[in-house]
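User: Sequence in, structure out. Go.
Assistant: Echoing your sequence, followed by the structure tokens.
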Amino acid sequence: MLKTWPASGHLQRWPYLLQGVGALLWLVQAWWLARVVAALMAHVTGSSSPQPDLPALLWQTALVVAAAGVLRAVCEYAGSRITWLHARAALTRLRLELAQRLRASSPMDARRAPSGQVTRVWMEQAEAIVPWLARYQAAQWRVLLVPPVIASVVAWHSWLAALILLCAAPLIPLFMAIIGWRAQAISEEQLQSLGSLHGQLLERLRGLPTLRALHAVDAAARRLSEQGSRVARKTMRVLHVAMLSSAVLELFSALGVALVAVYIGFHLLGEIRFGTWGEPLGLHAALYVLMLAPTFFDPLRELSAVWHDRANGKAAQQGLHGMLDGLAPLVMQPQQAAAPAVVPVAPVAAQAPSVQLRQAVPAAGRMDAAASEDRPGLDLQIPAGAHVAITGPSGSGKSTLLAMVAGLAALRQGEVRIDEVVLQDSSVAGLRQRMAWMGQQPAFFAGTIRSNLHLGRDSTPQQTAELLHKVGLGDVYQARGGYPLGEGGSGVSGGEALRLALARLAVAQDADLLLLDEPTAHLDSATATQVVQALARIARGKTLLVATHDPLLMAAMPQQLALDGHGRARWVRPEAGA
């Protein structure tokens, strides 16, 4: 589970207190300002009571107010900066945890979020946590510190004025909580819709050549426009709730200050004689109480302004939980806290490896029949050097079987053995160096055909030409070898992209266990024949497992393994059996 911020204790509390102390320095400034105003009034009215030296008082007040103002600015700036730095560090830790969780989850899990949604969560949605930790938490601490202190100071002079403030204050968080519950639900809906829109937009951009070929660009644009309109409506609902919360706060804070001002005015006029501790309020004390009344509501007003940050932060956190929880784990080399030791690499054997599954059941997470909770374990022995076509109806577990052999889906029970070596966290790095994987949608990046083929390995142009000639791409390389491909392999046809992916298998010369998932899907018969012939050349002397529905590819494989979707497998040709 992801950590719950900020309850995990990573954020320090003293920067929040520093900002609260800075806000309380207004008590000192207000006292001196009220004193000098009262002295000026007494000087103007010619009061007979003893008065302080007015010029000296003015200088003293100016110095005290200026010094307190500078100290207040320093406290608030330092506290705010440190708080933001801590919040940014917390977000960095959260992103690292997200990356580790994604890295440790199986790419074969059907519930894994699309890359567009993951990018949206990583880059934008997670950013909503920073204002929640920095601004909302700071405002919350000021609410806990500043209003009680101000109420105590006001009560020292007038218990009735303090009572008015205390009666108005609880109404604000009450209505804020009521509105906030709805605000969080609306924010969650808005973030989910926005993430879905990002994912759909990325998928449409990736499939733009296909959409153009099918004349479906306009239909896709209309669907994106409709989705964008729904996001806009939900965003406006969020803004409506935010404005409503601000209106509620301003209403009750204005009523509280107005009632205190009315009481102070009538008390100075002698119309209301109660509300103090015996002696009536003087002009100095009355002005002091009146100046503190708006400040009493300032932290609550600030809390209302950042209440939306809390709703967005919690919605973002819950979105992270929902995206990561329940994903199927991946068999992977554990990370070392200190300098890691050299991971032992399984030496390449003289012959291709055998594959054995013993009561193997994939971990929960996939959304297909192959991973149902009551599925029995799969027992299977694949001889060394066998070329096997894995067949069965859709959802029978063909891709899951390949994923278990590759360690791309961890096991809930049982084990997988490659050449009698158990596939587990301590051995997976070495065993994977003996494997080559080709999924249903091979990944390509923006770069030349040569860079997409070798993926950073050293090679010569002659080696590249020979490899591509073996898979029937020699002419393509001669004609377009110097031109870069686009993201997703745009620039070559679907059949050419598959043959380029096959050539990658030939580049990995140390790999003697080839795992392919539907390599001829959606290809015409002529292209499929070329792919099958290229695959036969590449897989010579190696163990080959191919999940397929293609009769042509099935006929080309010496062995066939049929899955029934209930955890059972049978060899279609007994002479190749286990």
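User: And one key feature?
Assistant: The radius of gyration is 35 Å.
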